[in-house]
């Protein structure tokens, strides 16, 4: 890039210090590989992230990876809510498909942790002094202005003029990734035309530590168990209806949510500010390019209905970091074409079927025409009768991770 000042050198430059970028940097550091984290947010927003209303249902495999990265021990016990089972209802029917671990297992199906707490714990782990770790360089409040790939490496120019040379550039800047665009990587983007509201609510009746997914007509409701008398409500509505709901006074909002849940948990009252997300799913056409890779939502931005975005992102970064670590130990280049292709192949296999299944579920459950209603009743009954189907889903949630 024609600069007289010599560039800062680093093994891997990561754009995006969200939960995935932070965990990836920590995982690289643990393998003795230096990383630079570039994020447009200031450090204060990373060390003490604001509440975004998201409760992340962590699978067994994700908890294992977070444990290996020293993130899980930094999640206080009081912030871990076990989810023992999941029930799926259709319309007014009280019939539910239940997904639960086998009777022999004490382990919950998943563990709910607020996204804010995961981000904070990941930041603390990434900044902790680690005797075995390589250095993590921080470039907060900054973005990439441009980048160029050569045979020797990737050259980056940051917004403040700093030049950086890396072996590999990794985009971890979320589902609308500007880095992915600047890499020239197209992505399949699906706008669902729906908004999702998330909000913690207190209720008078206890829940049984089960998550409810409830496909009513014209709306989708979910309830995630936070503590005995508190749940996170997740409601999906068309934008105009969501607008009207958000404009209600707190009392009317409480009454509206109580009615939507058909008083099953008694009167419900708001315990935190509601947050709203326009729903879009994204699947990148390629996860890699010359000396480039996509991880987390920048590669696969899942619809939250199946609660897998972060879980899949963790698996992906673990895959990539394991390949990079093996290459470095063997004295091989860490950004070779073969290595990146292998990451892409494995991560597409792990995410493609679940992405397609999630899109099918979203399509089926947001379609209120009579044939779709009949079909979903049949699907629920088939799923409920076929214990292998339930075992498969429960097995996916509970499978141990960190297997490389
Ligand atoms: C309501 C809701 C509920 C969810 N529930 C679950 C769940 O139960 N289970 C689950 O597994 N997943 C869940 N998810 C998905 C999960 O939250 C995401 O998969 C996860 O946050 C992705 O992390 P990320 O680090 O890839 O991206 P992000 O969290 O989007 O972080 C991206 C980072 O990049 C930075 N950035 C962006 N652009 C730039 C730029 N141009 N330059 C520099 N920095 C930039 C941002 O500041 C940010 O720090 C849910 C999502 C939603 C919306």
TrEMBL record:
Pfam families with a match to the protein in the record: FAD_binding_3
Domain of life: Bacteria
Cofactors: FAD
Residue stretches making up the FAD-binding domain: 10-348
Keywords in alphabetical order: FAD, Flavoprotein, Monooxygenase, Oxidoreductase
Associated pathway: Cofactor biosynthesis; ubiquinone biosynthesis
InterPro entries, sorted: FAD-bd, FAD/NAD-bd_sf, UbiH/COQ6, UbiH/COQ6_monooxygenase
SUPFAM superfamilies, per the entry: FAD/NAD(P)-binding domain (SSF51905)
Family matches, as NCBIfam families: PRK09126.1, Ubi-OHases
Family: Belongs to the UbiH/COQ6 family.
Classification via PANTHER family: MONOOXYGENASE NMA2164, UBIQUINONE BIOSYNTHESIS MONOOXYGENASE COQ6, MITOCHONDRIAL
Protein known as: FAD-binding domain-containing protein
Organism of derivation: Salinicola rhizosphaerae
Gene behind this protein: visC
């Amino acid at each position: 890039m024609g600069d007289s000042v010599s560039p800062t050198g680093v093994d891997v430059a990561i754009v995006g210090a969200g939960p995935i970028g932070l965990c990836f940097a920590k995982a690289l550091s643990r393998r003795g590989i230096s990383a630079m984290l570039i994020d447009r947010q200031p450090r204060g927003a990373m060390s003490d992230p604001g509440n975004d209303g998201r409760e992340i249902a962590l699978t067994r495999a994700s908890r294992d990876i977070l444990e290996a990265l020293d993130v899980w021990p930094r999640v206080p016990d009081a912030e871990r809510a076990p989810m023992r089972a999941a029930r799926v209802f259709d319309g007014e029917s009280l019939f539910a498909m239940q997904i639960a671990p086998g009777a022999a297992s004490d382990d919950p199906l998943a563990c709910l942790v607020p996204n804010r707490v995961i981000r904070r714990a990941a930041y603390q782990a990434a900044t902790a002094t680690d005797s075995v770790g390589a250095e993590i360089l921080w470039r907060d409040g900054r973005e990439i202005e441009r980048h160029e790939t050569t045979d020797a490496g990737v050259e980056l120019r940051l917004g403040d003029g700093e030049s950086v040379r890396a072996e590999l550039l990794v985009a971890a800047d979320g589902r609308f990734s500007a880095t992915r665009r600047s890499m020239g990587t197209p992505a399949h983007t699906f706008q669902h035309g729906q908004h999702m509201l998330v909000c913690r609510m207190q209720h008078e009746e206890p829940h049984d530590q089960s998550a409810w997914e409830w496909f009513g007509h014209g709306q989708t409701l979910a309830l995630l168990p936070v503590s005995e008398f508190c749940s996170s409500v997740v409601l999906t509505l068309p934008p105009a209806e969501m607008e009207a709901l958000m404009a209600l006074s707190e009392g009317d909002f409480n009454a509206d949510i109580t009615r939507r849940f058909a008083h099953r948990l008694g009167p419900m009252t708001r315990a935190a500010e509601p947050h709203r997300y326009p729903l879009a799913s994204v699947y990148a056409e390629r996860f890699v390019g010359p000396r480039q890779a996509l991880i987390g939502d920048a590669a696969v931005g899942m619809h939250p209905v199946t609660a897998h975005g972060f879980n899949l992102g963790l698996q992906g970064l673990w895959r990539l970091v394991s390949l990079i670590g093996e290459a470095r130990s063997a004295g091989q280049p860490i950004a070779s074409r073969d290595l990146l292709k292998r990451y892409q192949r494995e991560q597409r296999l792990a995410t493609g079927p679940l992405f397609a299944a999630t899109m099918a579920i979203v399509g089926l459950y947001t379609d209120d025409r009579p044939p779709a209603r009949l079909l979903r009743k049949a699907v629920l009954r088939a799923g409920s009768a076929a214990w292998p189907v339930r075992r498969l889903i429960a097995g996916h949630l509970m499978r141990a991770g960190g297997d490389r």
